[in-house]
Amino acid sequence: MKLETLAKRIAKKSRTPALEKIVLGQGTVQDLPDTCIIWHGAASGKNGHRQRMRRGYDNMPYTGISFDHRRPVINFQKKTYQIPRLLFEKLHDKPFPFRFHQLCATEMCINPLHFEPRKVNLFGYEPFRDFEAPPEEPIYSEEWGQEDVKEIVEIALTESTPLNWSELMSLPIMEGAPEKQVAAYLQSIGKPHLTPVA
Ligand SMILES: [Zn+2]
Description:
Blueprint: H1 3-13, H2 18-23, E1 43-44, E2 49-55, E3 61-67, E4 71-76, E5 79-82, H3 83-92, E6 99-102, E7 115-121, E8 124-127, H4 146-159, H5 165-169, H6 179-188
Antiparallel strand pairs: 1-4, 2-3, 4-5, 6-7, 7-8
Bound molecules: zinc ion (ZN).
Zinc ion binds next to loops.
Protein name: HNH nuclease domain-containing protein
Organism: Ruegeria marisflavi
């Protein structure tokens, strides 16, 4: 199966045409709805519950019931792909060797905006935040250090709710702020919709 076919199948089985572009690597976050996207295709895990032999504290066997969590999957080139991971990786154009944590409670949701890759560390999970950081490191000056940029952006976002880049940058507090560094910070905190449109 070609990638084009996979893209069409995913768009059809989710009843969301925008996903075709995403799978082909041509989509952006703006193409996605905020709401859950329900997968009508295959799922891993058996439907409902199944019986399993377990052992209690006294080591005596008993029959327990276990519930499989169903996850949306699709087969492509002899491999089974988890749809949310596939979409997320296509959207950001790179693989994420992390666990994907679902942020909504809809079992068959595949909206990549409702998932977050998390690193596992000694203390548990930690959101993987810097995946949007641009490869080119912004240069911070003496006047505008990384902490200063972070501080004014956080104040601006706390005091007002700018809808886009020009609304944000026209706030009095943002006057004279270095644009490249502000854009990089917005990416790093997962607010790419506020960055300037290319
Ligand atoms: Zn969802």
